[in-house]
Amino acid sequence: MSKNQWEKRVEVFHYVYSTLMSDVKDKDIIKNAFEQFTFSADQMKIIEYYANNKQEIINLISTRLQNNWTWERISAVTQAILLTSYSESQALTIDKKIVIDQALITADKYCEPNEKKFINAILDKIIK
Question: Can you tell me the distance from the alpha carbon of 59 to that of 54, in angstroms, rounded to the nearest whole number?
Fold first, then answer.
């Protein structure tokens, strides 16, 4: 059975989340994904973009946070959605509206209800 686009996005989100929660070093993210998982070419493009730009994406998001917020204060699930969504928008040049819509569908399933507005606001600010 083939997977739909959202299911493929969720697989990448799960992988990004697992890297945030594990001891996978940034330099080993691509190698680990390639060796241990079966990702499509598009999924690997997203993971490669994430691996090669992780700190820059975090910095970009951090500049859009309100004064009393820091990257570390954001839940790991929300971090993973933001990192995955931004990486997808850049690696595959997916339309901003589609990326945000898919991120919010993922948030509905995996996040606390109040995090959905936060994800929407941040992605709207950082995706061109």
Answer: 9
Q: What is the mean pLDDT of residues 21-30?
A: 85
| pLDDT surpassing 60 at residue 1 | no
Task: For the beta carbon of residue 63, count every other beta carbon within 10 angstroms.
Answer: 9
CB 50 within 8 A of CB 60: no
Query: Looking only at Cα atoms, what is the longest distance across the chain?
Result: 47
Cβ neighbours for 109, distance < 8 A, ≥ 6 positions apart: 10
Distance from C-alpha of 30 to C-alpha of 49, rounded to nearest angstrom? 9
Contact 126, 62 (CB under 8 A): no
pTM above 0.70, yes or no: yes
The Cα 107–Cα 23 span in angstroms is 24
